[in-house]
Design a protein that fits this description.
Elements (H helix, E strand, L loop, with lengths): L8 E5 L7 H17 L3 E5 L1 H12 L3 E4 L10 H9 L8 H8 L1 H10 L7 E4 L5 H8 L3 E5 L9 E3 L2 H12 L5 E5 L3 E9 L2 E2 L3 E4 L7 H5 L5 E3 L6 H17 L5 E9 L4 E7 L9 H8 L4 H10 L8
Parallel strand pairs: 1-2, 1-3
Antiparallel strand pairs: 4-7, 5-6, 5-7, 8-9, 8-10, 8-12, 10-11, 12-13
The structure holds adenosine-5'-diphosphate and magnesium ion.
């Protein structure tokens, strides 16, 4: 067990300007409270208030990043912290930037022979007929840059494809179509070298969208996930490899679909997952007997080690 004083002065970064600001405010408040309970010298900081200059003025010894989405999870903040010489939690510049880009993440996974659903980039003048012929229906249309399922839709007909593209294009300059995997959804949390137990996410609508994530009360989280031990081990190892493939470090979460034949398909990597006390990573940690405060300390402790990726 590390002592609180080892960390020096810690700033928890939360809020920010991304579409996920509201979620981040909750994550940050939970992390801040946990570190206070552990006796760490900690202060919360919202980059939307004073930018980088404000953070520098606080002169923290290290930073806990509880920001989600652009400007916090996408490598830009990580680059700034590298230049300022301030250690921070989670993945470095490369993995953060890559994880934010779902399509280029898939290219890396494909190059390494890791399973991920086939996808195609969409443009305003795409040949919709051809896209449908190549990916089949239904298919998924999503903005390439990750966010809490904003702008994502399931497309059931060729006619709906173009409007789904237009909807996604409101959120992002780059939009992709992806083969739809019918089956079960899992998410696997990674903490340092450890793979935490998988969680099966069950959504009555079949679509874990913003509503299902943050508002619905019929979204169910199965933990233990219900897979046989050998399959869960296979899933865990796949996610560990997927996270390592993009250079992920410290902690993170990988989303996976399992088709009706039992094959796993990597969907995306999250390098700064939610950290409210009922978020997925804390739930997985709790299942191993690790409480929220201990989890937060362990994530923070990864900043004491030199980076590898
Ligand atoms: N290829 C796919 N097949 C089936 N469902 C998918 C697929 N891609 C995404 N989904 C569904 O959409 C949800 C959100 O997609 P995801 O790429 O994880 O975006 P976000 O960054 O918003 O979490 C997933 O949790 C899953 O329910
Ligand atoms: Mg996701």
């Amino acid at each position: 067990m590390m002592r609180a004083s080892e960390f020096g002065r810690v700033a928890v970064l939360y809020g920010g300007n991304s579409a996920e600001r509201e979620v981040s405010l909750k994550s940050g408040a939970a992390v801040l409270a946990a570190l206070e309970r552990s006796g760490v010298d900690v202060i919360g900081y919202d980059p939307a208030d004073g930018g980088l200059a404000g953070l520098e003025a606080l002169a923290p010894d290290r930073v806990f990043i509880a920001l989600h989405g652009r400007g916090g999870e996408d490598g830009t903040l990580q680059g700034a912290l590298e230049l300022l010489g301030i250690p921070y939690t989670g993945s470095g510049v490369l993995a953060s930037a890559l994880g934010m880009d779902k399509q280029r993440t898939k290219l890396v996974w494909q190059a390494m022979g890791l399973p991920t659903p086939e996808s195609l980039m969409l443009e305003a003048d795409s040949d919709w007929e051809d896209i449908v012929a190549r990916l089949d229906l239904p298919l998924i249309v999503k903005p390439v840059h990750e966010g809490s399922t904003l702008g994502i839709s399931i497309v059931d007909s060729r006619e709906a494809l173009q409007s789904a593209y237009c909807e996604a294009a409101r959120f992002d300059a780059r939009v992709m179509a992806e083969r739809f995997i019918r089956g079960e959804e899992y998410t696997v949390s990674l903490l340092g070298a450890r793979v935490l137990p998988a969680i099966r996410v069950e959504v009555p609508s079949g679509f874990y969208d913003y509503e299902a994530k943050y508002n619905a009360d019929d979204t169910r989280y199965h933990l233990p996930c219900g897979l046989e031990a050998a399959q869960e081990a296979e899933l865990g190892e796949l996610c560990r490899q997927a996270f390592e493939a993009i250079g992920g470090e410290g902690w993170g979460r990988v989303d996976v679909m399992r088709d009706v034949e039992g094959r796993f398909w990597l969907i995306e990597a999250n390098t700064s997952p939610g950290m409210t006390d009922h978020s997925l990573v804390p739930q997985a940690a709790a299942h191993t007997g690790m409480g929220f405060d201990e989890l937060v300390l362990q994530i923070l402790a990864t900043t004491l080690e030199p980076r590898r990726a």
